[in-house]
Amino acid sequence: MKIEEIEKELTYKAKHVYEEIDEKEKEFLEKVAKDYIEFLSVVKTERETVEFGKELLEKEGFKENDIKKGYFIYRNKFLACWRIGKRPVTEGLRIIVSHIDSPRLDLKLHPLFEDTELAFLKTHYYGGIKKYHWVAMPLALHGIVAKKDGRVIKIVIGEKEGDCVFTICDLLPHLAKKIQAEKKLSEAIVGEKLNVLVAGIPIEDKNEKVKKRIKLKFLELIYKKYGIKEEDFVSAELYLVPAGSAREVGLDRAFVGGYGQDDRICAFTSLKAFLEVEDPEYTNLILFMDREEIGSEGNTSAKSRIFEGIIYNLLKKAGISSTADTFFNIMTKTKALSADVTAGIDPNYIEVHDKLNDAKLGFGIAVSRYTGHGGKYMANEAHVEFLAWLLKNWDENKVVYQVCSMGKVDEGGGGTVSKYFASYGMDIVDVGPPLLSMHSPFEIAHKGDLYMTYKAFKTFLKV
Q: Phi and psi at residue 89, in whole multiples of 5°?
């Protein structure tokens, strides 16, 4: 072989998405990106994601707990949907699982207080955040309040044109030298000081004995609009999230910027792919799960037993024995994707990246054969036979992908839900687009990677 042939045939070279697709496919890519931006702009909590999914599924003819084309919702934070394939369920399934929770600020149980004639709400951050990201920016309030009379009141403030927004005030640099500038970055903004400014006008009352008049004005306003009293915060799920829409980023509009792309980008693409595969060979199952960002704790997470219940229910409806040995036999024949994002190489922080092995934006869906941290602790590692099968199918369907890890050894790492599903005996691997500014209020994804994630999921569900 000549040296040019050796280089062409034997060496590996990553491929940029935009160099591998034609103009017609680029037009479709832009449509997918437009739909995604609209989704990302309005869906900012787990409940809103489930609500979006349910509405879309019912529009496409899916019915709750139907045996052929069905869906199941648990606690309004977990969604499963399935389409029965040509082959019996006993021959295994094709599963894509993503998580729909994102880092945010939760209101405390007793959040409201007044100090120096200003009213604030106290928060407790959820998931891995950099606290300094959340100060001095517009925030919206999303969530629900469960009343004792059984009513559930939905709240979204700060997203419509003309809405007020909220914010967490930062300290001006003139006074910040000792309290912030001389501290570590992780200590400069204290979690207990992530208090949200919500009101500043006193209630109209000439009685000088009335105290906390700003707080009372806030309570009056929220009661008039929603019927909420201060005690109702105890039974509320109210989150502070970045206000405003997702946007195209870059002069060439190459990127999508917005909150919650970890991991709603995978939820969006997996559901879109699922709805377009109308006659699959194997039964398709899509899972939206909660609480991944805090270790998958709780009864709507990957550690719960909900998944098992769904499989047992499908077996019963199909008239198949729902014994434990049947369940585990099916699991050994099942192939699954843990759909979650990974870190893209940021050249401004190249010292933490392995350029040879980490994912690059624009080079397609990233496949992480193993996750975890130092010494591969807390990791799932996919079997190479499954990986080779998956990549072969993607090659045949012109899916642009990259196989990667996340950061240099001993720099950190991360986990996903894959290890919990691997414990059932199924083949599973972590896949998803790389992001920049992950876990920030404005995460960045490349449109090419978004599109290839959708295309990869659609291919997987077909084979």
A: -55, -30
* Rounded CA separation 155/152 (Å): 10
Residue 18, SS3 per DSSP: helix
pLDDT of residue 282: 97
High-pLDDT (> 90) share of the chain, %: 88
Q: How far apart are CA 243 and CA 60, in angstroms?
A: 31
Same domain assignment for residues 329 and 428: yes
Listed residue (347, 317, 334, 360) closest to 429, CA to CA: 334
Which residues span the domain enclosing 112? 104-242
Q: How many other CB atoms sit within 10 Å of the CB of residue 390?
A: 23
Residue 449 lies in a domain: yes
Within 13 Å and on the Cβ side, how many CA atoms surround 287? Answer: 28
CATH number at residue 35: 3.40.630.10
Calpha distance 260→126 (Å, rounded): 13
String of DSSP letters for 88-130: -GGG-EEEEEEE----EEEEEEEEEEEETTEEEEEEEEESS--
Q: Give the integer Cα–Cα distance in Å for 235 and 289.
A: 22
Q: What are the tokens at 147?
A: 């009343």
Three-point CA angle 275, 280, 286, nearest 5°: 50
What's the pLDDT band for 325 if we cut at 50, 70, 90? very high
Question: What is the spatial order of strands in the sheet that 236-242 belongs to?
Answer: 152-157, 139-146, 236-242, 104-115, 118-126, 196-199
pLDDT of residue 317: 87
What is the number of H-type helices and E-type strands within the chain?
11, 22
186-224: pLDDT as tens digits: 999 999 999 999 999 999 877 777 789 999 999 999 999
279 membership: H or E segment, kind and range:
none
pLDDT at residue 1 is higher than 80: no
Q: What is the DSSP string of 319-375?
A: T----HHHHHHHHHT-EEEEE--EEBP-GGGGGG--TTTBB-TTS-EEEESB-EETT
Both tokens assigned to 216 = 């009372």
- 237 and 126 assigned to the same domain: yes
Gap between the Cα atoms of 295 and 301, Å rounded: 9
429 conformational bin, left if phi > 0, alpha if psi -120 to 50, beta if neither: beta
The pTM is what? Answer: 0.95
Which CATH number does the domain housing residue 149 bear? 2.30.250.10
Q: Which of 212, 207, 211, 196 shows the shortest CA–CA distance to 114?
A: 212
**Which residues, 6 or more positions from 55, have their beta carbon under 8 angstroms from its beta carbon?**
none
Domains contained in the chain, number: 2
Q: Kindly state whether residue 222 falls inside one of the protein's structural domains.
A: yes
